[in-house]
Design brief:
With about 600 residues, the chain is α/β, with parallel strands linked by helices. Helix 9 packs parallel to helix 10 and helix 10 packs parallel to helix 11. It is flat and about 75 Å long. The longest helix is centred in the first third of the chain and has 11 residues. Helix 18 links the parallel strand 20 and strand 21. The strands form 6 sheets. It has an 11-stranded parallel sheet, with no helix packed on it. It contains 26 helices and 30 strands.
Length: about 600
C-alpha cells in the first residue's frame, strides 16, 4: 500500500528554519498550497519536487513564480490551467513522467522560456508544432518516433533540441532536422545511410562544437562517414559492430581529437593500417583479441593514446608488437600477462595502463620495471616484498593506488623508487613503513592515510608530505597528533583535512603556527573557544562548514581573521555571536536562511558577506 506523504506549511517552515539545502523534498508525494508559498522564498538553484504525483491548479500558479530550476518529474498529468501557469515559470522545468499532452497543454508549454524536459513517448504533429515554438533547450529523450511533418516543425525550433530516443528517421525527416539551427542531439540513431536527407543530417551533426556520440549507430554508410569525419572533437561510434575497410579508411581522416569504437568485435589488418595514420586518440573497448598483424599496425598509431581496454588475453607476439607503440597505451582489461608478454610491453615508451592486473609475479615485475614512462597498476591490492623490490627499479611515475597494505620491507624498497609514487589506497602504515617512505625522493601520494601519530616514523612522513607549493590534501585523515600537525603546518599552500571531526586546543595551535594558506576543516562538528582563537592566527582563509553552532566567545575569537571565513553549516547563532562576526574584516560566508532572523539581520549589514 502506498502511503501519501504531504508537504505541509509547518514542514516547509521547519525546513527553512533548519537546513533547507539538504532537505529531501522529493520524498513528498503531495503539497499544500500554503507550503508552496513558503517555498516561493527559496533563493537557491533548484527545487526537486520529483515525488509529487499531482498538483492543483492553484499550486501550479504558485510554482510558476519560482525563479529557480523546478523538477516535477513525478507528475503524470497536467491540466490545461496548470500548464498555462507553468509556462510563465522562468528557469529549467522538468516533467519527465508526462508521456503525453493535449494540444492545449503543448501550446502553453511552448511559451515557456528556459530548458524544458518532457517525457513524451509519442507526439502528434500538432503538439510538435506547438512545442517547436519553445525558446530554449527542449529535451524529448523518450520520444521514439517522429513524423515528417513533426520533424519539419522542429526544424524551426530555436535552441538545443535533444531527440536521443529516436532510432530511425525517414529521409524527409532527416532533411528537415538538418535545417535546425541550434544544437541538435540524436545519440540514439541506428542508421545514417547515403540518402540525401541522411547525408545532410550527418553534415549538420558534424558541425557540433563538442564531442559527438552515437551509442546505437550500427549502420553507417561510407558517404555519411565522410561527412562525420569533418567533426572537430571526439567522435563516439559506440554502436558499430563491424567496420568495412572502405569505411575505416574514410573515418581515419576524421579531423577531431578521438575516435571510439567500443562495441567493435573485430578489426582487419587493412583497417588497422588505415587507422594507424589517425592523429587523434583511438579506443577499441570491444576487441577481446587482435592478430599480430593488427597489433603491428596499431603500434604505429600516430595519435597520443591507444586504448585496447577490451583485450582479455594478450599473446606474447601481440605484446611484442604493442611494445613498439609510443604514447598512452590502455590495456586495462588484462588480468594477467606472461613473462614474455611483459618483456614486450616493457619496451613501450609512454604511459602504460595495466590496471586490470590482479597480481604479478616477480619475473613480470622485473620486466615491467624496465618500462620507460608512467606505469599504472591499479588492480594490485597487495604485493610481495620481491615484487616491491623489482617495481622500485622502475623509472617514472608508479601508480599503486589500490594497495591496501604493504610490509615494512616493501615500503623500504619502494622508498628507493624514482619518478613519483602513488600509494593512495593505504589507510594505515606501521611506524617503520612510514619512516621508510619518508625517505622517498619524489612526489609521494598517500591520500588514503587515516592516521599520523607522534611516533618518529610518522612525524618524518608528515614532514615528507609537506609540499613546497600547492595544496596538501588529506581527505581521510581523522587522527592527527600534535607533533605531526606541527610538520604539516609548514606546507606552503592550502591544508585540507576535512575528515577531522574534532580538534583539541593544542592541535589547533599547532596547525596554525606559522602556516600561510587556506585551511579546510569542514568535518569539525564542534570548536572550542581556545581552538577558535588559535585558528584565527592562520594567515589564509579558514573553512569550517561542518560546524552547526558557535559560542559567543568562539565567534569573538574568530572575528579578527583577515582572510575569508566560511561557516555555511551554522544553524544556531546568537545575536551576540553575529555582532562579533560582523566585525570580521574579510569575506564572510554564512547561510543566512539557517540562522535566526535577528542574527541574519545583523550579518546582512556585513558588506563582505558571501
Amino acid at each position: 500500500m502506498t502511503i501519501e506523504k504531504i508537504f505541509t506549511k509547518a514542514i516547509a517552515e521547519e525546513i527553512f528554519r533548519t537546513n533547507f539545502e539538504e532537505a529531501e523534498l522529493s520524498q513528498f508525494t503531495a503539497i499544500e498550497e500554503d507550503a508552496a508559498w513558503v517555498l516561493h522564498f527559496f533563493e537557491g538553484g533548484s527545487l526537486n519536487l520529483g515525488g509529487l504525483k499531482e498538483i492543483s491548479d492553484s499550486v501550479a500558479e504558485v510554482l510558476s513564480n519560482y525563479k529557480v530550476n523546478l523538477w516535477l518529474d513525478g507528475l503524470r498529468d497536467l491540466s490545461d490551467s496548470a500548464a498555462v501557469s507553468l509556462s510563465k515559470h522562468e528557469g529549467n522545468l522538468s516533467l519527465d513522467s508526462i508521456t503525453c499532452v493535449t494540444d492545449q497543454v503543448a501550446e502553453s508549454l511552448g511559451r515557456h522560456v528556459g530548458s524544458l524536459n518532457i517525457g513524451l513517448t509519442s507526439i502528434s504533429d500538432e503538439v510538435a508544432k506547438s512545442l517547436s515554438k519553445h525558446r530554449g533547450t527542449l529535451h524529448l529523450p523518450d520520444l521514439i518516433c517522429l513524423s515528417d511533418e513533426a520533424a519539419e516543425s522542429f526544424s524551426n525550433h530555436v535552441g538545443l533540441l535533444t531527440l536521443d530516443g529516436i532510432e530511425t528517421l525517414s529521409d524527409a525527416a532527416t532533411e528537415s532536422l538538418s535545417q535546425h539551427e541550434g544544437e541538435l542531439s540524436l545519440t540514439g540513431l541506428s542508421t545514417l545511410s547515403d540518402s540525401r536527407g541522411h547525408l545532410l543530417l550527418a553534415a549538420r551533426l558534424a558541425g557540433k562544437d563538442d564531442q559527438l556520440n552515437f551509442f546505437k549507430l550500427n549502420h553507417l554508410s561510407v558517404q555519411a562517414g565522410s561527412k562525420l569525419c569533418k567533426h572537430q572533437h571526439r567522435l563516439y561510434l559506440s554502436g558499430l559492430l563491424e567496420l568495412s575497410d572502405e569505411l575505416t579508411q574514410v573515418l581515419a581522416k576524421h579531423n577531431g581529437r578521438g575516435l571510439a569504437f567500443d562495441k567493435l568485435t573485430s578489426l582487419s589488418t587493412i583497417g588497422a593500417i588505415s587507422l594507424s595514420e589517425y592523429r587523434g586518440d583511438l579506443s577499441f573497448g570491444g576487441l577481446s583479441s587482435i592478430s599480430v598483424a593488427t597489433a603491428k599496425a596499431l603500434s604505429k598509431h600516430a595519435g597520443e593514446a591507444l586504448s585496447l581496454a577490451g583485450l582479455k588475453d594478450l599473446s606474447d607476439e601481440v605484446a611484442t608488437e604493442l611494445g613498439f607503440h609510443v604514447g598512452e597505451l590502455y590495456l586495462a582489461g588484462l588480468n594477467k600477462i606472461s613473462d614474455a608478454a611483459a618483456i614486450g610491453l616493457a619496451r613501450h615508451n609512454g604511459p602504460l595502463y595495466l590496471s586490470g592486473l590482479l597480481e604479478i609475479s616477480e619475473a613480470v615485475a622485473k620486466q615491467l620495471s624496465k618500462h620507460v614512462g608512467e606505469l599504472f597498476l591499479w588492480g594490485l591490492t597487495e604485493i610481495s616484498d620481491v615484487v616491491a623490490l623489482e617495481l622500485a627499479r622502475h623509472k617514472g611515475y608508479l601508480g599503486l593506488s589500490y594497495l591496501t597494505a604493504i610490509s615494512d620491507n616493501a615500503a623500504k624498497y619502494l622508498s628507493g623508487h624514482v619518478g613519483g609514487l602513488s600509494l593512495a589506497g593505504l589507510t594505515t602504515l606501521s611506524d617503520a613503513a612510514a619512516g621508510a617512505l619518508a625517505n622517498y625522493n619524489g612526489q609521494l601520494s598517500l591520500a588514503g592515510l587515516t592516521c599520523l601519530s607522534d611516533n618518529a616514523g610518522n612525524i618524518a612522513l608528515a614532514r615528507k608530505l609537506v609540499r613546497p607549493k600547492g595544496a596538501a590534501w588529506f581527505p581521510n585523515l581523522c587522527d592527527l597528533s600534535v607533533s605531526a600537525a606541527l610538520e604539516l603546518a609548514k606546507n606552503k599552500g592550502a591544508l585540507c583535512m576535512n575528515a577531522l571531526t574534532s580538534l583539541s586546543d593544542e592541535l589547533a595551535e599547532s596547525l596554525c603556527r606559522g602556516h600561510k594558506g587556506r585551511i579546510e576543516l569542514n568535518g569539525l562538528l564542534e570548536l572550542s573557544d581556545n581552538a577558535a582563537a588559535s585558528l584565527s592566527q592562520n594567515d589564509g582563509s579558514l573553512e569550517l562548514n561542518g560546524l552547526t553552532q558557535l559560542t559567543d566567545l568562539a565567534a569573538e575569537n574568530l572575528s579578527p581573521m583577515k582572510r575569508g571565513l566560511f561557516l555555511d553549516g551554522l544553524r544556531n547563532l546568537s545575536d551576540q555571536a553575529a555582532l562579533a562576526l560582523a566585525k570580521h574584516p574579510g569575506p564572510l560566508s554564512i547561510n543566512l536562511r539557517r540562522i535566526s532572523e535577528s542574527a541574519a539581520s545583523i550579518l546582512r549589514r556585513h558588506a563582505s558577506l558571501g
